[in-house]
Design brief:
Blueprint lengths: L1 H19 L4 H32 L4 H31 L8 H11 L4 H12 L1 H11 L7 H35 L1 E2 L2 E10 L2 E8 L5 E7 L2 E2 L5 E2 L2 H16 L8 E6 L5 E6 L3 E3 H8 L4 H20 L2 E2 L8 E6 L2 E7 L6 E2 L25 H4 L8 H16 L9 H10 L15 H10 L11 H9 L9 H11 L3
Antiparallel strand pairs: 1-2, 2-3, 3-4, 4-8, 5-6, 7-8, 9-11, 10-13, 11-12
Helix pairs in contact: 1-2, 2-3, 3-4, 3-5, 3-6, 4-5, 4-7, 5-7, 6-7, 10-12, 10-15, 12-14
Length: 484
């Protein structure tokens, strides 16, 4: 609408500049039209202001809808008033039709509202044409006969009918979409991400107004030609939910609920975290000081230690699954995410190869232990220790332990190539104790690594300077960088 009203003033002022060079009838004619184009500019300014209000998101949806409906009424009046006046001045006849009925018909498709509300507002907007005609008639700017009033009223009534029918269709579709975004007691609000195991949405509990994150796996085409959730994906999803629900470490993401939707989607609800994952942290701000790395890795060890005590192996420890939070009054508070590849130590031997049918690897190649990369079935918690060594390398240097052109090339390096010490990769100071500890986590032989997350945590705390990253320093860093 703003662009449509801007075209005529643009052409007018362009013609006016040309006419300035040749004073005469053309200039007088343009000046006579000036009030119409000034009115257009007023509408353009009002439309721009309304657009800005919608973009700021500072006005509630209800008030925004009210403003939109009032805007429709005002626009219809301006269109009718301007068209009747200008056409009558130029031709001596009242036009049979203006663009106002078109606005009445199209507006509910752009700004959906309840059909009853649309019916009332559309009726008022359609009445702007007879009203404008009456005001122009009374002011002597035109002479309108009964036929003109009948035409404008009839056109408006037809437009109201179409607007009402269109609003019923659009509003009904909107209700269906809203229903599709209801999962149990939660309403989906915004998609936060999507990966191999499904989608993650920001959601809100309908009664408690509690924000949450929902991970869901939607039904799709399956092997038999129907629609559903593939059995393997479903097993992994259930295993992730069950494993997460068993864990109580404050450094493991908390699970609220688990269920299935009417359309066959499965989902679980977890706490919504405010912060940044370790992968994004290093990409945005570069490698972090060694004392902060120790501070973060220690919290990951706390989560993994409890998992070990429950007989669980995460199998996909990586920076993207380590989330740094502003958690209550705590900063740099770590939450371990995504237990989608968790394995129980007492599970039956997994006869799957290291590659799935989709040719993807169980885990992330850049953070995968040699025994995991080679497809050994008898893995244990020491694969998570190896992965933490890879995470430490990323935090301290901003580099991966190994890189290659293909996932298989990276896996072969994990299996056979000795890693480069962290101190040789960066100019940042790294204590020799930490350097040696990370290299021990990256040992090819699991027996040469720290044997448990608890042991790794103890050895981290024994490093000189390990306690120098304090909650106060963490708070200052977060406040400086305004992470949200």
């Amino acid at each position: 609408m703003m662009i449509a009203f801007a075209i005529d003033p643009f052409l007018f002022f362009g013609g006016w500049l040309v006419a300035r060079l040749n004073e005469g009838p053309l200039q007088r004619e343009l000046l006579a039209d000036a009030p119409f184009y000034l009115a257009d500019l007023t509408v353009v300014a009002g439309s721009a202001a309304f657009w800005w209000v919608t973009r700021t998101r500072r006005v509630s949806a209800t008030r925004l809808l009210t403003l939109g409906l009032l805007y429709e009424i005002a626009i219809c009046f301006v269109i009718a008033f301007r068209t009747f006046w200008e056409d009558y001045r130029d031709t001596g006849f009242v036009p049979h039709l203006t663009w106002a009925p078109a606005v009445v018909i199209l507006f509910p498709l752009i700004v959906p509202a309840r059909p009853r509300v649309v019916l009332g507002v559309s009726a008022v907007a359609a009445a702007m044409s007879p009203l404008a005609l009456l005001l122009l008639d009374l002011s002597g700017r035109l002479v309108a006969h009964a036929e003109a009033y009948i035409n404008s009223s009839l056109n408006g009534a037809i437009a109201v009918g179409f607007a009402f029918m269109g609003s019923r269709v659009v509003y009904g579709l909107g209700r269906e979409v809203a229903a599709a975004r209801e999962l149990g007691s939660y309403r989906l609000e915004e998609k936060l991400g999507q990966g191999g195991m499904g989608e993650v949405w920001r959601a809100r509990h309908r009664l408690l107004a509690r924000p949450a994150a929902i991970k869901l796996i939607r039904p799709s085409s399956v092997a038999d030609g129907g629609v559903g959730v593939p059995a393997e994906a479903m097993r992994r999803f259930e295993r992730e939910a069950q494993a997460t629900a068993r864990l109580r470490s404050p450094h493991t993401v908390e699970l609220f609920d688990f269920g299935s939707a009417d359309d066959g989607a499965f989902y679980y609800v977890m706490e919504l975290l405010d912060g940044v994952d370790a992968d994004t942290l290093v990409r945005r701000f570069g490698p972090i000081p060694f004392d902060r790395a120790i501070y973060l890795l220690g919290q990951v060890c706390h989560s993994l230690s409890e998992a070990e005590s429950c007989g669980l192996v995460h199998r996909d420890v990586k920076p993207a699954n380590i989330f740094l939070c502003r958690y209550g009054e705590d900063y740099d508070f770590v939450k371990v995410l995504d237990f989608g590849l968790v394995k129980g130590l007492d599970d039956a031997v997994d006869m799957e190869t290291a590659l799935t049918r989709a040719n993807t690897i169980h885990g992330t190649p850049a953070f995968m232990a040699p025994e995991q990369a080679l497809g050994y079935s008898d893995i244990d918690g020491r694969v998570d220790i190896y992965a933490l060594g890879c995470v430490a390398c990323w935090l301290l240097t901003g580099q991966l332990v190994f890189s290659g052109d293909t996932p298989m090339a990276i896996l072969m390096q994990h299996a056979h190539t000795p890693p480069v010490p962290m101190s040789a990769r960066t100019e940042l100071p790294i204590p020799s104790q930490l350097d040696a500890l990370v290299l021990s986590c990256l040992s090819k032989d699991p027996a040469d690594r720290p044997q448990t997350a608890k042991e790794l945590l103890r050895r981290l705390t024994e490093i000189d300077g390990s306690g120098s990253w304090t909650p106060e320093r963490a708070r200052a860093w977060w406040q400086l960088h305004q992470i949200a």
